[in-house]
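Components:
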Amino acid sequence: MNRLEPDQSQVLARARRAFSPTASDADRVRVSLRAALAMNPPVAAPDPSATAGRLSRIAMRLFVAGAIAASSGAIGYRMGRRAAPSEPRAPISVPVAPAIIADPAGATAPANGLPAVGAAEPRPRPGQATTSVARPPRRSESRPGHSLDPDSLVREIEALRSVERALRDGTPGLALALLRELDRTLPEGKLTEERRATAAIARCASGAVPLGLDLAKEFGSDYPDSVYRERVEEACAQTDLERAGDTASRRHQP
Amino acid sequence: MAGGPGTYRWGDVLKPSAMSRRDSGEPDFDGVYAEHFEFVWRCLRALGVAPAALDDAAQDVFLVVHRQIPTFRGESTLRTWLFGIVRNVASRHHRGTRRKSSPLDPLDEELPSAGPNPFERAADAEASAFVASFVGSLPPKRRDVFILAVLEEISVPEVARILSIPLNTAYTRLRAARAEFERALSRQRGDHEQT
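Structure:
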């Protein structure tokens, strides 16, 4: 086969260079991949034996039943929080479904200043009323046009929990990747407010403070009465202060 | 995500401990990712996936790899297998499709000073645009040979194996693709000289 002319080789070498990924491309996709795999875990290979098959079917039914119960609990919990004080409240089964929505008053902020979005609520002791009864109503009412699909809600809740866990683990890049994956797989989710709150926090935590502050500001204007608003602002303000502190300390260095 | 069937323990993904080479001899996922990410990325790019969609496309490729790696029996080479997946994924991503940017999109972490100078970058961008356009104009059979043999510099016998075509057919397609490339480049040079 004839060799290429020098000018052809040069064009191809340039194109090859432009087409090649950078190290950050590889890292970014790796994080996204990790997020996607965490959200859609591979299902274990089925056991060929009939007994194992039966057991797995039973387990699957139990899992589906649990998922429906969990989603019902989470929805009931949300509705309970959002209902006006005069409305009768639906029974809330917090112990069944640890709520994705943070307690505005009761939740303790973690040491890193990140809000407890997606964190489990403090579980009530037996016989104790759930704390949601005392919560103020929220302005963001139920969103029309969203079908109540328990499976997708459960997935959304689990994904947001993973986001929160990633934030607590100090891996905001992974949190953003998880949110991106969630947007990709469930664009019409029901927990938009929670997604936007965690996105702003993750942005700030990842060091993109100006963008995070913008997101926090937008979040504040779109959800002025949100229970997350203060925490979002605090998280971004804290990272902003830390950044300012770093800059100041660098400036004072001899 | 803890507990329940089919759950994934946090941090188990893409770690050597979780993806170590199996006793059955199947390739380990982490190794495949590290070794072939560039190949996958460049092929996706050459196959016309828009830069804005590359992250998603590359992720899709490796999700398929992750799912199917236990069934990979080594009857074909790894690159053959990967290129088949890349081609399928690329065909699903519309050529030139632009994804709506979102606040969750990764920021460009490359520093402006990194890499070649602005003139080099401009020349690289021009060359890549030309090559991408040329590759897009080729019929699929010649396109695949051109990408693998010319852009990826894979030997023609291996290209023939990857594409499961006779060696002579691979040479014929390569010869035709190169001739077209030469003509396209001459045309481009002519256009440049006229302007």
